[in-house]
Every structure is written in structure tokens, then in C-alpha cells.
Amino acid sequence: MGETTQQGRGVNPLPADQLYTKLDYSALSFETTDELPDLSEIVGQPRAVESVRFGIGINKDGYNIFALGPNGSGKKALITQFFEKQAKTENVPWDWCYVHNFEQDHRPKTISLPPGMGNQFRTDMEQLVEEVKSALSTTFESDEYRARRRVIEEEFQERQEKNLEEIQSQAKEHNLTMMRTPAGVVFAPVRDGEVISPEEFQKLSEDEQEKLQEIVEDLQKKLQKVLQTVPAWQRELRERIRKLNQEVTTLAVGGLLQELLQKFETFPDVVDYLNSVEKDIVENAQVFLKTEDLSGGENPENQLSAFMARLRQGPSPLRRFQVNVIVDNGSLEGAPVVFEDYPTFQNLIGRTEHMAQMGALLTDFTLIKPGALHRANGGYLILDVREVLLQPYAWDGLKRALNSRQIKIESIGEMLSIVSTVSLEPDPIPLKVKVALLGDRLLYYMLSSLDPDFEELFKVQADFEEHMPRNPNTQDDYARLVATIARKDNLKAFHRSAVSRIIEHASRLVGDVEKLSIRMRDISDLLREADFWAGQREYQTVQSEDVQKAINAQIYRADRLRERYQENILRDTILIDTKGHKVGQINGLSVIQPGNFAFAVPSRITARVRMGKGDVVNIEREVELSGPIHSKGVLILAGFLGARYSKDKPLSLSASLVFEQSYSGVDGDSASSAELYALLSAIAAVPINQSLAVTGSVNQYGFVQAIGGVNEKIEGFYDICNSRSLTGDQGVLIPASNVKHLMLREDVVESVRSGEFKIYPIEHVDQGIEVLTGLAAGEPDSEGNYPEGTINGIVQMRLDELAKKSARFGKNDAETDE
Question: Is 417 buried (19+), middle (13-18) or exposed (0-12) by CB count in 10 A?
Fold first, then answer.
């Protein structure tokens, strides 16, 4: 039995009513969008909404959200809306502060306080420092303190003088006196109250000299013993003064600190910190008493010396009593919702800044700066995953924080040993945050397959649709969506005729009469631009003409490249025939999309055949200009030819196919039906009507399958035909399964309505070849033979001739070999 085919005798062109599905605005129940309420729910995203609600509701580790879908689909707006709604019902998280660690300077401590108390604590500490400075200044300048210190100093002085007086008395008994010289303390003999000269000393007898020498040596030893005890006395003096200072400091600041201790007594970390502060103040009271003026008057040299002295002093020692509030949630009314638009490693995790001091980079806990994770801690964080992946180490830092459930501030330079500076190791802060990543599907699938941590950390997949069904209910929702966006962006009200045109354009954007685009960015842009054109006309409401003007303006701004292509065709630089008949030549249609604007242009496809071994050569593939899908489509053609015409004999044919004047890559299978028609024409030597263009893929059984960009393809060929003048014979063959996708321009529809242009819905290649050649395709009889005079019959006869010739050549070659 021969194969079953769908002949579809006499395929009729589509009527104009099937080329564009209008929305009669009289069916809308409002006059302008001012009459419509705002949308209270998200339209067209039931799956994504349910996923986000689940992700927010489940309070378990790893159930963070990845919102996947194309840009402009409203991912950020929906996630933000749900996060903010939930955040209002949650408690405000506590503030976080860093304070000095008095035991380990390089490891600042964290303190957590209720919302708003972080700043209050910082203010209280600033006030405490000022009060301590004032109190200590008053205390150490008081008469009581000076009297007590004078007693200690005089006691030391008396002890020293008493010991020296004893030695002086012993010296007098032996007619000696104690003198201070540049070389030190010496003893000299006296006579009649006057020190004798060396000459007079030499006149003394040897016995007297020796006796005096012995006495001097003895006194010198006693003096040396006294002088050796002086450092110990000085240490004792300093210790007693230190204890005095600590005593009066404790009395001076004890009351001040007691007030703070009572105020923050319910916060153990604050109490421990204040106790450490008190201990440090008592031990280092002198840092509050440095009041000397370093200006040195008006002398420039003194001013320079004072400036250098300040540099040498470094940061004020009082900085260690400051409080660095890195997270202040006092102004929040619920949990925080943070979107970080520049998610570098430091902007996510936080950083420690440095300041230059005498050629060195120094830092302390007051230079710790928070990241997005700090600000979002206790709430919600939204990130664009592409931006995160583009920043070095940002993705690893985010994962590390989520895995460890804490924020540990680290420096990339130190991690990589790029810089060597004084740095800190701040205490990590516990992390509790719900993260939502925004990205396209490709990034989601890549991370799922390549990063083993990804699915452990982002368990909730919120998949956003690009379109929603088009029916009366959804059209009403779309009208409310228009009203909501208009009010949100302070736009003019939209007349129902404008809303009708917007809904029609939403179907065109998605390329389906049964669907509506819900890419919010595109719709919002159209509304804003239509509002602008209405303003140019000084209209109070936006009309359908304004919407159409906005659509036309968008196309005009983007279609320079399309005009250049069409210009090259109309000037015969690119050869495209739109009239006449040619063997083995057909007009295919290719979609080009530079950026967001897609258009189509016709491409000449040619086929040549000769006797061979059944191979169909794809010239684009041979020169590596063919993509894999296009190459697959060409191989399908060989399968179709062999199965239909050479079931019981070899396919003795070699054919070549090429996109003429193609200088870049070719991919996709939407031209495979056109290539098959060109092959059949070349085999049968039957010409194809060049007034027609073809699009559609084909399978091995000859059925024509749906393709993308059908509207752009029809309009692309129409524009060329219209520029050369329409004859009534021109048209496009499309897959019948693409009829539901037709939303053509008004001028195309009107040309079809007037009979100047035709669109043929094709289900099987037999239908298409009949339209293209004007000959019947022919149906096989019980033995698989096709009638004479039909396309299939001519092809079969031609292939049989090639098979016989091939057999004769094979026989002659064999005889020659013998």
C-alpha cells in the first residue's frame, strides 16, 4: 500500500477576519480607566505567586527563592510586593553595634539592642565621654586632690632629704661638705667654712690626707646606697599617685557609669562592656586630661610643629569609647526589605575601611561598614543573580553567609594576600534572612547543574510566565492592570478604545491570538509613551490613536536595519523575485532580531540535482555556516524523499541546497518545507511561482509544522511586494498550525481583504506544492505509483530514470573492471 497523505485539494487563502483578532471596545463595561479599581492580585502568575507565598511561609533553612523568567516579566515587583506585605506583619529586628574589645583590640565585639536603642546607646556613650572629661578635669584640678598628691610627693621629698641630711651631718663632723658638680655629687674638705683648694690639700700631711680619703670613701658608699634607693622610692611614689588617681577617678565616674548600668541592666552584653569601660577609664584616666595647646601661638614654625605632633599622636584614644551602630532599625515599622543593585562582595558582606596615618593604613572598629546582609538581617533581601555572579567572590560570600548563618566581615585583599595592612577580625553577627534571587531560566538551570550548593540554599523555584490566556475575564483583568499602572505612574486616564488597542498589541507581542503578554516592562513603556503622545495632542484622555502612535514610534526608532535590508532587495543588490516562475528556486523567510525588535526578510533558496547516491548536500553545512537544527532539517528531507519515492530501489540522486547571498550563520528548521519544495521543483523540472514565499518546518512524513515569528515573516515579504506594487498573485504559505498566532498589521489585513495579497494555511507539503506550481500533487495507487502529470508522478518518473541510468553505469563499470 502507498503512504497516506493529506492532499488538501484546493487550499483556500485565509479570509481577512482570521488574520487579526480585534477586541470591540464597545464590549468593555467602562468609558475610561478612571472608573476601574486597582488590581488587588497579581494577574497571570498563579504558579509564581503560589511559589513565593510558600517560600515566605516556610521558616526552614535553605528555603530561599529563585525567581526565574525573562527580564520585564515583573519578577522584582511581585517579589517586593509580597516581601513588603509580609514584612509589615513581622517584628522589627534589633539594632547591631560594634564596640571596642578592651582585651583584644583587633577583635571588636558585637552588641545587639532593641530597635532604636543602638543610636541611643551611641549618644549615651558620647555624652558619657564628655561628662567623664569634665568630671576628671574638675577632680584632678581640685584643691583636695592636689593636697593629697602634695602630701605624697612631700613625703617622698622629706624621705630623700632626710637621708641626704644624715650624710651631710656626718660629713660636717669630719670637716667635709657635700657638693653637686657636673660629674656628680662629691665630698670636699673645708676650713673655716670654706672649701680648701687642691694646693692647700697637698700641704696636709700624708696621714691627714689618707684619713680624709677613707672618710670620703665611706661617705660615698653611704651616698651611693641612698641614691640606689631613689628609683624604688620613685616607683613607690608613682604607684601611690596611680592608686590615688584610680581612687579619685572611680569616685568621679562611678556615678556616671552607674546611671548607664541601670539604664541597660537588662542587656548583659552592655553591662559587661560598661564594666570594661569603667576599668579602662580608671586605668587610663590621663587620656581624658590631655589639654595642652599644640598650636604654639602664631609662629608658623610652631604651627608646623604642632601639626606634625598631631600626626604623630595618631587617632584619638577616646575613639575606643565610641559605639559603631552598623544597623539601625529604629525607623522601621516591620522587618526590613532590601534590594541591593550593586552586590559586590563588600556591599553584601560589609567591609573594614582604613585611614592613612603617617604613610600607613590604620583601622579600628569605628571604620566597620555594614553590607546588604546586615541591613536585611531579620528580614528579606532581593538580588539580581547575574549581578552577583559578575562580581568577584560575591557569590561565594553569599553562599558562605547563608550556609554558616552568620555574617563574617572579611577583606578580599587579605584573603588573597594582596595587601598587608593593620586589620580587624570583628565578631560575626548571627544571620536570619530570606533571600530572593532574580534571574533568567538559563542561569537557574546552569547553577542547578554546576553548583552543588545551589539547590541546598535555594529550594523554592518561582517560575514566571511571559503570557496568560486571552478571554473575556482576563481582558477585564488586563483593563484593570492598565488602570493600576496609569494611576501608579500618574498617567492620563485611558479611553476604552485605547485599552482595546493595548490588549490587541499584547496578543501581538506574544504572537498568539489566544494569549496576552504579561511582560510588565513592555506594557508599562507603551502606556507611558501613549500618555506622552496624548499630551502632545493636548488630550485629557489617551485614545487608541495615541497607542498606535506609540507603537509606530517604537518601531520607527528600531527599524533602521530593516530598512537597509529592504533597500538592498529593492535595488536588486540582494536578489529576490516577486513575480515569474523558476525551477528549483523559492523564497524562504528569515527572522532577524537585533535587540528587542524582530523583523523578517525573504531569502532566495535554490536547489540543484544530478545523478548520485541519494545524498542531499547542505552547502551551508559544508562551509560551517549551518547550525545543528538547520542541518537536521536538511537531513529530514533526504528521509522524506527516500521513504516516498524509493522504498524498493536506491535513491540515485545527489542534490545541493543553499541560501543564496547568505554571509552569516543559518539555523532553525523553519525553511525546511521551502527547501523541500525547491528540491521537488528541481527534480521534476517544474517551475515555482516566485510571487509566493514559504515558511514552515516539515517532518519525514511531509506534514508542515509550526514555526516562530509568523507575523514578522508575512509582513517582511508583504513589504517587499508592496514596494514593488501588489499584483494579487503574491502571498505567503504558512503552517496551518500557525493560524492561531496571526496578529498582522492593519495594512496587510486590508490588502488581503481587497484580494491583493494572500496567505495560505498549509498542513502537508502536497498542499504547498500544488499552490506553488499550479499542478496537482497526486495520490498513490495501490502499488504506490502516482498519476502521470502530477508533481509526485513527475518526481517519481524522474527518480526512476536516474535509478536506471545509475544501474547502467554500475553495470558498465563492472564489465570494464572484468
Answer: exposed
* pLDDT one-digit tens code per residue, 312-343: 445 678 888 999 999 999 999 999 999 999 99
Could you tell me the pLDDT band of residue 538, with boundaries at 50, 70 and 90?
A: very high
Amino acid at the residue 214: E
What residues act catalytically? 670, 713
Res. 189: pLDDT tops 60: yes
State whether residue 338 is helix, strand or coil.
strand
Strand partners, 65: 436, 460
The model's pLDDT over 492-506, given as tens digits with 9 standing for 90+, comes to: 999 999 999 999 999
Q: What is the DSSP annotation of 154-176?
A: HHHHHHHHHHHHHHHHHHHHTTE
Burial bucket for residue 500 (CB in 10 Å: 0-12, 13-18, 19+): buried
Which grid cell sits at 135? Answer: 568630671
The residue to which cell 548563618 is assigned? 405
- Which grid cell is 3? 503512504
Q: Which of 705, 684, 689 is nearest to 786 (CA)?
A: 684
Half-sphere exposure of 571 (CA within 13 A, CB side): 7
**Binning pLDDT at 50, 70 and 90, where does residue 291 land?**
very low
pLDDT computed for residue 10 by the predictor = 67
**DSSP one-letter string for 725-768:** ---SS-EEEEEGGGGGG----HHHHHHHHTTSSEEEEESBHHHH
758: β partners: 731
Grid cell locating 706: 509550526
Question: Full-prediction pTM beyond 0.90?
Answer: no
Q: Return mean pLDDT, the chain.
A: 85
Share of the chain above pLDDT 90, in %: 54
In the numeric block, the cell 510566565 is attached to 465
Of 171, 167, 525, 110, nearest in space to 323 by CA:
110
Look at 169 and 510; give whichever has higher pLDDT. 510
d(CA 578, CA 730): 7
Contact 743, 467 (CB under 8 A): no
In one-letter notation, the amino acid at residue 539 is: Y
- When mean pLDDT is compared across 106-110, 197-201, 459-463, 647-651, the lowest value belongs to 197-201
What span, in angstroms and rounded, lies between the C-alpha atoms of 481 and 486? 8
How many residues in total does the chain contain?
A: 818
Over residues 253-271, the mean pLDDT reads: 90
Distances (CA, A) of 818 to 389, 563, 804, 806, 809: 71, 65, 21, 19, 14
State the Cα–Cα distance between residues 525 and 534, nearest whole angstrom: 14
CB 237 within 8 A of CB 153: yes
